[in-house]
Amino acid sequence: MPPQNYFVVESPDEVGRKAYERVADDVLQDLDLIKVIDRLHIYVDPKIPIFIAAGVLRHMPRAIHVGDFANVKRGDTEIILDIGDETYLAPLLRVLWDIYGKENVEQPDRFTIILPAGMAGEEDLEQVVVADPSETLHKDIIYAMQYMAPEGFKVRRQYIREGKFYYVASEDTLPGDVVERMVMPLFEKMGVTL
């Protein structure tokens, strides 16, 4: 598992800084996020009070398409999906039921699915998205930040897009310019722009 390129916890309270460093490290390891977060800068100031975590992801997992794990064989009256990896079989069935209707999806065995030919959208069947692991990753990152933030810091803003994320939490109302004034400088310290 590759180490993070950049991991900093900043706070005017040195004892609190060290504690948050340990907490952040434990949470990231427990949720197996160390291998996907490339850079992370956390700022905690109990006097304001504010908790800010800004980060950059190493790589986003790509969406899984039908063509990634199944061969599509088109015939005159039916389309046969030959499943090579059944990892995504359950979500595939749900997607096909939504598109074609449950009554039009036949599964004679766990490695074969038969669809009627001539249905709308069949020409793009290989490109149909079956699962998007980034959705789960986004939830895990937000969960990790919520877990790291001090107890009682319920006022928050969060953002995850294009490989960057931030999480801001406080027990007080957050100022409207918190992103420009406090979050963007953390990204600049990591050498990236938001």
From TrEMBL:
<dbReference type="Pfam" id="PF09886">
    <property type="entry name" value="DUF2113"/>
</dbReference>
<dbReference type="InterPro" id="IPR016762">
    <property type="entry name" value="Methan_mark_17"/>
</dbReference>
<protein>
    <submittedName>
        <fullName>Methanogenesis marker 17 protein</fullName>
    </submittedName>
</protein>
